[in-house]
Design a protein that fits this description.
By secondary structure, the chain is α+β, with helices and mostly antiparallel strands. The protein contains 32 helices and 41 strands. The relative contact order is 0.05.
């Protein structure tokens, strides 16, 4: 019978588990198949989008190359310069080119144009003069189609597609045009934006993997597209949607199996409990017999209780009196053992059911135990009493008490130590007598008034208390107290948490000691290790540690707010690096100081004189630093100062005062008078600082330059100082730029902005409208193109000065020619992005406009679309301020940036200058024609006039007239000429 029951215990749960498991597995498999179908559909859709995007990218770049060949000038004295300007413009408008190469008719590389940043290239100007084969591509002179090849560059570690063709197969004399594309960079940007991290994909060409993200798993969900053409090469795209991190089918299977197992287990336990319920009573009897407590069961009889059951241990516990007690009632038993009062307690348990427990000293000699523990509980109608012999425990407690008394005497005799006990709230309830020897207070006084004597607690006190609350021992900590005589004393505590059996904190105990002398000695040793013994300043070791801490704090607390370099269209279609002003950030300035003529004092008067000089100089230095600054002596006559959280301008003002104080200082020793000085190297500490070693080296070099320039001065180190290999021509242009700012070395040019919808008869009476252009006079004669000096001015932070020079000198020219002003409608002046975000520049321009005799309504300031959108709030403030004075504004190069017409709506400008990239080919390109039409119509709907740039021929002008564009600017309408010639010509014409 028992075997059948055991079979049912396991058979029924097993059958139920198998049935439920099959049900959930079937559901999970169905969901997994459905999910795989959805992944294939998603991957197919995204792959088609990627293919279309790559084909569009390819067709746009190929079309751009065809346009460049079609626009190749027939008669151009310098085709290289023309090509370089067009190539830079093309790269600025269409990203992705790694190089553009012009090859002359002899098949030699004449020029290579590469973008400034962002794209790797294997083709650069080092190939100039080499044959065409150096590019890895051999182009037929008479082929009408583009030829391409796929190459791998070991230097760049990227694949490149090189595409080229004869510029004009009918006129081989024009040479060849070749374009290079960095495949990995292009695909990385485009695929990263389109695909996202939830797809694995692979792009192949010429049996090589050009780009891959993730690993394609061969689980039947890979989508492979038909080959398509990208930059004249055939590519193959494979894509796979990644598995969801949470596999729904597998999750259902696992949960289903778990639930099946749980249900089967519950059924099994119920069956098993029913089977084994019959043996529970037997097990209870066995356990009671094995217990170390005497277990007695009494049943009520009249007003007493009679014994009905007792385990074997009760006979052992009451040995010697067991036979006598067996036949007695409970009342008789308690009287026999001398514990009559316990009978009433048991009666109370029977009456109200509340358990009773007591520890009793046995006064009878009839049984062996001296102390017993009694527990009485109501068990149904009966009373269950357990009795335990606790004689040994009470003997141990007595011994422990004696040991505690002995320990107390030992603790009270400890020198400069004491032990203590605190509550869970950290209030002292006990301290040994040693506290009186240390602080002068009695134990009772200290426990009652401890908080009154505290002078300083550790900063991490809360963390220490939290550690103790979790039952963990904290590290020793120091608390400062005021002793009875008023002196400060440091006490080191070592807390130990005391927990009860449930793990709850019940007290804190520990030992404390007087560490006042120890801390004073440590402080003295620390000071001597970190300070210069002669001057009392930080020494080199401490300075290096502090400097590294400052660098770590600067890196943690500083986030870039700007200063990134970006590609934009600036000036005359010249792509340049625009340095965006960096917002305020926490920075410091380090000054490396070397004393001038210190060796002369040492050599003349000896080292004692030198020591005295260093002490007095360090006193002067202390007067020019505050509490947060760092001053250190790092060598014989070398000092370092770090001005914390101060700008370079603030520091240089303080250094001017410091150098003046040192110049006025006279050192006298043995009736000898000495003049000393200081050469100071200055360098900023900001988020770009690499390391302490590099910083000190750069500051030392700057100090050397200060000495080289004449001593007793400072020299500010900039990043450009480390660029020792800077191009000579750039140095020449930069020098010419500085010279021009100081000596008016610029020359103002102008180009007319002509109305397109005015008849020739009305043109003569129409007021002039022209744009101010800028040229730089080279020191060797000739003019320097803005494409060269404008990027340098922006890089070196001079652009706001250049802008101010143009504004000031344009107004001066107009002021000196009042007759010309009467014939002028608008004079357009370009402003850079740096000026647009410079509040001081805005103030200076507004002040100049208020002081000039030129009517403000005749001045129009031009700002580029990209600059305005980059800092929209600053642009709106700048425009609003000058428009209040009467000036007008034009939004230059509109359409070339990444903005939308929303920004045009939010900018209060009067003119919209359509970018020349759309105007140049408007006659032949329907897309450009549609773009110009849209910009013109929307600008007119907003009440703004339009100006078309790059009007290169009469056909373009006619198309613009048909579109009702208001103004045109370009070589077909007017060529740039010096502003002075334009002004004088108008004046002569008026006088005639």
């Amino acid at each position: 019978m028992l075997n059948k029951l055991n079979h049912r215990i396991y058979a029924l749960p097993t059958v139920l588990f198998i049935f439920l498991a099959l049900l959930f597995v079937s559901a999970g498999v169905f969901i997994q198949n459905d999910e795989r179908t959805a992944r294939i559909s998603k991957a197919q859709s995204v792959a088609e989008q990627v293919k279309i995007s790559l084909e569009v990218f390819s067709s746009e770049r190929i079309q751009a190359l065809h346009n460049l060949m079609q626009n190749w000038p027939t008669f151009e004295p310098n085709q290289v310069d023309w090509f370089n300007a067009q190539a830079l413009s093309l790269m600025g408008m269409q990203k992705g080119f790694s190089s553009l190469v012009f090859i002359d008719a002899n098949g030699e590389i004449a020029w290579v144009t590469t973008p400034s940043t962002g794209i790797k290239t294997r083709i650069d100007n080092s190939l100039i003069g080499k044959p065409m084969e150096a590019l890895g591509l051999n182009i037929s002179r008479f082929s009408e189609g583009l030829q391409s090849t796929l190459l791998y560059s070991d230097t760049a570690e990227h694949h490149f597609i090189v595409v080229g063709r004869a510029i004009s197969p009918q006129e081989p004399k024009h040479g060849f045009l070749v374009a290079g594309f960095d495949v990995q960079t292009i695909l990385g940007v485009m695929l990263g934006e389109l695909v996202g991290p939830q797809f694995n994909f692979q792009l192949q060409g010429d049996s090589e993997i050009l780009f891959q993200s993730g690993e394609l798993l061969n689980d039947g969900s890979i989508v492979r597209l038909e080959p398509f053409t990208f930059l004249e090469r055939e590519l193959f795209l494979s894509m796979q949607s990644q598995l969801s991190p949470y596999n729904a089918g597998l999750l259902i299977i696992m949960i289903g199996l778990l639930m099946s197992a749980l249900v089967s287990f519950v059924l099994h336990k119920q069956l098993k409990g029913a089977v084994h319920l019959s043996v529970s009573h037997q097990r209870y009897l066995t356990a009671s017999e094995a217990s170390l407590d005497a277990l007695l069961i009494y049943q009520p009889t009249d007003d007493d209780f009679s014994l009905v059951e007792a385990n074997s241990y009760s006979r052992y516990l009451f040995r010697g009196a067991c036979d006598a007690l067996r036949f007695m009632s409970l009342a008789e038993q308690t009287r026999y053992l001398g514990m009559q009062d316990q009978f009433e307690s048991v009666k109370n348990v029977a009456a109200n059911g509340v358990p009773y427990e007591a520890r009793i000293a046995v006064g009878s000699d009839k049984i062996m135990p001296e102390w017993i523990k009694i527990q009485a509980v109501k068990a149904g109608e009966n009373i269950a009493i357990t009795i335990r012999d606790v004689t040994e425990r009470f003997r141990a407690q007595r011994d422990l008490k004696e040991s505690e008394e002995k320990y107390r005497r030992l603790v009270d005799g400890m020198h400069r130590h004491f032990v203590y006990t605190k509550t869970v709230d950290h209030n002292f309830v006990y301290v040994s007598a040693g506290i009186e020897k240390i602080l002068g207070f009695t134990s009772e006084d200290f426990c009652a008034n401890e908080s009154r004597y505290v002078r300083q607690v550790p900063d991490e006190l809360f963390n220490i208390q939290q550690t103790i609350a979790h039952g963990e021992k904290p590290e020793p900590y120091v608390v400062w107290y005021q002793g009875r005589t008023g002196e400060p004393l440091a006490i080191e505590f070592s807390d130990t948490p005391i927990n009860d059996e449930q793990g709850l904190l019940v007290a804190v105990e520990g030992i404390a000691r007087d560490v006042t002398k120890e801390l004073a000695l440590q402080e003295e040793v620390y000071f001597q290790a970190n300070h210069d013994q002669l001057t009392g300043l930080f020494n080199r070791y401490a300075f290096d540690e502090k400097l590294r801490e400052i660098l770590e704090d600067t890196q943690k607390q500083t986030k870039p707010k700007g200063g990134e370099k970006c590609l934009t269209s600036a000036g005359f279609e010249k792509v340049a690096n625009i340095e965006i002003p960096r917002a305020y950030c926490q920075q410091s300035v380090m000054c490396f100081i070397d004393m001038d003529r210190f060796k002369l004092v040492n050599d003349s008067c000896g080292h004692p004189a030198g020591d005295k000089l260093l002490k007095e100089i360090s006193t002067i230095f202390r007067q020019y630093v505050n509490g947060q600054d760092l001053l250190a002596r790092i060598g014989g006559d070398e000092f370092c100062i770090i001005f914390r959280n101060q700008s370079l301008d603030e520091v240089t003002k303080r250094l001017d005062k410091l150098l003046l104080a040192i110049s006025n200082y006279r050192f006298v020793y043995d009736d000898k008078l000495f003049f000393v000085g200081a050469s100071i190297g200055v360098i900023e500490i900001n988020e770009t600082t690499q390391s302490a070693e590099a910083l000190i080296k750069a500051a030392d070099n700057a100090c050397y330059k200060a000495k080289h320039l004449g001593r007793n001065r400072y020299f500010v180190f900039h990043d450009t100082d480390s660029q020792m290999a800077i191009d000579d021509s750039e140095n020449h242009v930069l020098h010419a730029l500085h010279h021009a700012l100081q000596n008016d070395g610029f020359e103002l040019y102008s180009q007319a902005i002509m109305p397109l919808n005015v008849s020739n008869e009305e043109m003569a009476d129409h007021l002039q409208h022209y744009e101010i252009l800028l040229r730089l006079n080279g020191q060797q004669g000739g003019l320097i193109s803005p494409g060269l000096f404008i990027p340098l001015a922006e890089r070196h932070g001079l652009m706001n000065k250049v802008d101010m020079w143009v504004v000031d000198n344009t107004l001066k020219t107009l002021e000196s020619n009042p007759f010309h002003i009467d014939n002028v409608g608008k004079v357009a002046i370009n402003l850079s992005g740096i000026t647009l975000g410079d509040e001081m520049a805005l103030h200076n321009i507004a002040k100049r406009m208020q002081s000039t005799s030129v009517p403000a309504e005749k001045i129009c300031f031009e700002i580029t679309e990209t600059t305005a959108v980059t800092n929209l709030s600053a642009a709106k403030h700048f425009i609003s301020t000058l428009r209040d004075l009467g000036c007008s504004f034009a939004l230059d190069d509109f359409g070339a940036g990444m903005s939308s017409f929303t920004y045009l709506k939010n900018l209060d400008v009067d003119y919209v200058k359509i970018d020349g990239s759309f105007v140049r080919n408007i006659v032949h390109d329907p897309i450009d024609h549609a773009t110009v039409t849209a910009i013109n119509n929307i600008a007119h709907s907003m009440g703004k006039q339009t100006v078309a740039e790059f009007v290169v021929d009469n056909a373009t002008a006619e198309v613009l007239r048909e579109l009702k564009v208001d103004f045109g600017q370009g070589f077909a309408l007017d060529k740039p000429k010096p502003l002075a010639h334009r002004v004088q010509w108008r004046v002569k014409l008026a006088s005639a």
